[in-house]
Amino acid sequence: MKILVPVKRVIDYNVKVRVKADESSVELANVKMSINPFDEIAVEEAIRLKEKGVASEVVVVTIGVKKSEDVLRTALAMGADRAILIEAADDVHTDIEPLAVAKLLAKVAEAETPDLILAGKQAIDNDMNATGQMLGALLGWGQATSASALEITDGVARVTREVDGGLQVVDVNMPAIVTCDLRLNEPRYASLPNIMKAKKKSLAATTAAEYGVDITPRLTVVKTVEPAARAAGEIVGSVEELKAKLKEAGVV
Amino acid sequence: MSQTSNETDAPLRESIDYDVVIVGAGPSGLSAAIRLKQLDPNLEVVVLEKGSEVGAHILSGAVLDPIGLDRLIPDWKEKSAPIKTAVTEDHFLFLTDKRSVRIPNWPMPKLMSNHGNYIVSMGNVCRWLAEQAEELGVEVFPGMAASELVMEGDRVAGVVAGEFGREADGSIGANYEAGMELRGKYVLLGEGVRGSLSKIVIDKFNLSEGHEPQKFGLGMKEIWEIDPSKHKEGTVQHTMGWPLNSNAGGGSFIYHIENNQVYVGFVVHLNYENPYLSPYMEFQRFKHHPAVADLLEGGKRIAYGARAISEGGLQSLPKLTFAGGALLGCSAGMVNVPRIKGNHNAMLSGIAAAEAAAMAISEGREGDELTDYETAVRDGDIGDDLKKVRNVKPLWAKWGALASTVLGGLDMWTNSLLGLSVFGTLKHGKNDAQATGEAKDFAEITYPKPDGILSFDRLTNVSFAATNHEESQPCHLKLADPSVPIAVNLAKYAEPAQRYCPAGVYEIVEKAGAPEFVINFQNCVHCKTCDIKDPSQNITWTTPQGGDGPNYPNM
């Protein structure tokens, strides 16, 4: 069984996100970038399936700027077998929209014919939560999103999904797409020996144009703004004072 | 790669041999790596960096004197180095609480001039240097903390790096990775100020013997995006005086770099006596001076960080070599205090160490002392640079800012013109921890509350350092004696850790009516001040897991 894992290079979760002065997007210049945490969970799950003997090959793919190669190296160091880089932008601020990503991934899936695509449920940069679903539609495959547990038996993926107020268990026939949620696993560290070994693993570079996919944005970002700053609080000395202040504010 | 056993409960770890192992992807380490490959492309060179990426832990002013870079990569302009902002204006102000007096440039010795220097983000310069190094075939591994020395008899033979996944109690966690031994014919330590391995080496090989104690400052820096109409790219401004006055030595810098950004920084010499002093709050208060507030108003603070600086100069420079390796840059301490610069010497030292190591390896040597390096530093450009200014810092410590500016200026003139000093070479005396006075002899300092516009509380600012530490790991700030913070430091010094730490790592909290010392190591920005300033010298800064710590942008 072959697993394809799409990964995205996003702003690191530790970074304090800041809007660009021209409000066109968030600032990505001079900012630490990392593999999208949900994608890292997908990579980990794929490697675990390989270690269990369920999968035979794990292929990772990313779409973006040349530097996105870094997240592929991370995935290779974790244990993926080979990687594909689809260069689709020169400027890190160029966002490739979910539909364009899904179309490109569909092409990759046609060429690679994986039995399972494991993806992050969403990227933490713009929280679209759309690529996996669009890819399912384009390929005509079954899909299960937000997986917190995954089991594979006889061509069926049994996926436990985190839904509002509980868990839902669904079976999907493979080939299928499963998107991964936070609690699916805790990804391993990319160890130094494995990072060294990963340098020798295959990384094929190609471009969006080679797949003949139009990645021109269909959405226009009108404006990007920071959340309004919270007004300062006030410490009151007594219940009476609190009541008075609440009245003053017209809350009670 | 081969397998070796280690003494702990950990599984076997792998080992790999290099010609030269370099710890730290800063200006010194990367310069050494590049020079080694320039001299002999066949050398196997590895650079280990604890930051999540190269540049993540670099914090510097910085006005760069390109002397080192010119020698390392003469065509750096063609290779699009991120060094674009030439210094065009250079102001030096003396501040009183409301006013500022500009000190003219003419009485300053030429060595103080910033003509031909550049305002840079040293973080970005290091990112670029790492690319140059990788193109030459150097292996650079960010996110890999070198946590132990590998000894072979009396020589340093390598380091252990990349151990991950210990639990808070030190036991082996589910995702444990044992790390790896990286062995080298020579190990070059370019960890920056108060490096954790450098400290062990200085102690083990007695490298400070016969030298003055190292002296330090704490540098704090914010990046501001300001109103374009107030931005003057290329302008450099330094101040002395208010708000520190006689409480401590130090001063500020404001550098106008590209993209409407200014680097606003503040340095406090760590030999201050009053344990109630808060370097961080001095910095915040400083920004309210009219000469600064006018510039920053309407702007936005976009990043914050802090790092200790070595200030001991020539007198404090330890022996640089030991069997199997050498100290580079500020792991030894090569900052020129009055010039407020160290990056040029860091790069020159990396080059010199590389030249000595490449020569030694070509002669078939390994694991001995690179004495040529020591000579090149002391008798070469670095020694020259530091010698002329060697008395400025001790004069400052003795006479305060104003008098020492005059005396120090005079001394730099005689050194520059006559090659001698009327003072000879002055001593520093005590180290910075010992300089701390007892609380009973000092008055508490009340600082104005940060307004959230120009000044910020410490924890808010720390969030702009983007620092993070995996919580389930052993605390990397080690207390030699856990009772000391309360029993000694609180009683005698009002536990200054609460105030000297620019990241709010240390707190005294009340628990069941008794004070308790709390270490919030997750906030640590790796500045090393606690390791330096704790009056009981009870805190040792060790490295946490690789990739942890601040994620500085263009610092």
CATH structural fold name of chain A: Rossmann fold
CATH topology group of the domain at 2-75 and 124-211 and 318-387 in chain B: FAD/NAD(P)-binding domain
Residue ranges of chain A: pLDDT <50 for 5 or more in a row? none
The span between the termini of chain A is 63 Å
Work out the helicity level of chain A: 25-40%
Which regions of chain B have little confidence, pLDDT < 50, spanning 5+ residues? none
**Strands side by side in the biggest sheet of chain A:** 9-8-7-10-6-1-4-5-11
Cα-to-Cα separation, first versus last residue of chain B: 36 Å
**C-alpha Rg of chain B (nearest Å):** 22 Å
CATH architecture of the domain at 2-75 and 124-211 and 318-387 in chain B: 3-Layer(bba) Sandwich
Identify the notable features of this structure and list them briefly.
heterodimer; A: about 250 residues; alpha/beta; Rossmann fold; nine-stranded mixed beta sheet; about 25% helix; B: alpha+beta; FAD/NAD(P)-binding domain; Alpha-Beta Plaits; globular
Structural write-up:
The complex is a heterodimer of chains A (252) and B (555). Chain A has 252 residues and is an alpha/beta fold. Chain A has helices spanning 37-51, 69-78, 98-112, 131-139, 192-198, 239-248; strands spanning 2-7, 9-11, 33-35, 57-64, 82-87, 116-120, 142-153, 156-163, 166-173, 176-180, 203-207. In chain A, strands 9-8-7-10-6-1-4-5-11 form a 9-stranded mixed beta sheet, with helices on both faces. Chain A has a two-stranded antiparallel ribbon with strand order 2-3. Chain B has 555 residues and is an alpha+beta fold. Among the domains of chain B are: 2-75 and 124-211 and 318-387, FAD/NAD(P)-binding domain, CATH 3.50.50.60; 455-541, Alpha-Beta Plaits, CATH 3.30.70.20. In chain B, the strands form 5 sheets. In chain B, strands 1, 2, 3, 9, 10, 11, 12, 18 and 19 form a 9-stranded mixed beta sheet that branches. In chain B, strands 7-6-14-15-16-13-17 form a 7-stranded mixed beta sheet, with helices on one face. A 3-stranded antiparallel beta sheet of chain B has the order 4-8-5, with no helix packed on it. Chain B is globular, with a radius of gyration of 22 Å. The interface between A and B is medium-sized, with 21 and 35 residues.
